[in-house]
Amino acid sequence: MTGGTGGLEVRDLTVRIAGRTILDRVTFTVPPGRRLGVIGASGSGKSMTALALMGLEPTGAAVSGSIRLDGTELVGLPDRERARHRGSGIGMVFQEPGTALDPLRRVGSQIAEPLRLHHGLDRRAAGRRALALAADAGLPDPESLLRQYPHQLSGGQRQRVCIAMAVAGEPAYLVADEPTTALDVTTQARILDLFEGLPAGMVFVTHDLAVLARIADTAVVLDAGRVVERGAVEDLLASPQHSATAALVSAARATVRRTPGGDR
Predict the structure, then answer these.
(1) Residues 6 or more apart whose Cβ sits within 8 Å of residue 59
(2) CB-neighbour burial class of residue 50 (10 A; exposed 0-12, middle 13-18, buried 19+)
(3) What 8-state DSSP symbol labels residue 86?
(4) Which stretches make up the ABC transporter domain (predicted)?
(5) What span, in angstroms and rounded, lies between the C-alpha atoms of 238 and 260?
(6) Who's near 263: CB < 8 A, 6+ residues apart?
(7) pLDDT tens across 145-194, in order?
């Protein structure tokens, strides 16, 4: 990867599909090692932001603006060049693990692939590291599980395999799109511990404000494809200024009140 150490800089990122504007001049910066949350209601453009960062927007999408990864402009790069930055420069945990896993390959080989591709490990060393990553991700009986195929795993297990794959590449930046949605509370806490221990910068897409408060330093709020509010997470949650942010905070508080044992 070329360039300096300027972080992940997104400026006026715009995505249009079939004449419809999905993202409208989205702008934010993630310094090295810092974590940015991206929040918003369903349809606000959160997942499209994540896909655009990876250069994986839908076929036919028109993308403009700038995405600079440590000084290298990614928008407009041919796909072959863009692919060189995926995995080690910028990695992703997809919201739907079915989009990331090959149904015809054992999951162990899929976790090991970025270890061999980006770090030059031989098959045996990559297998040992894949086993350790599976354990870190809280996968049960990882030695047996890594011999299985994706369809033999539960949704939550497939999600943890995808997390292990993304972490295996040791990317400078990790884009995580709702990475804990399919997980129970205990496993979610373990995955957040794993994320917190990474040196990577992160763009963390979530609708869960409790997760946001734990994992992110700052956040941007999307509404209809636009950034409508930004700032420190604690300030956004304590004193939201835009109606879209206020609605998210109000909904989160209502959920807590309805939860047995929640605040009353």
Answers:
(1) none
(2) buried
(3) B
(4) 8-249
(5) 23
(6) 256, 257
(7) 999 999 999 999 999 999 999 999 899 999 999 999 889 999 999 999 99
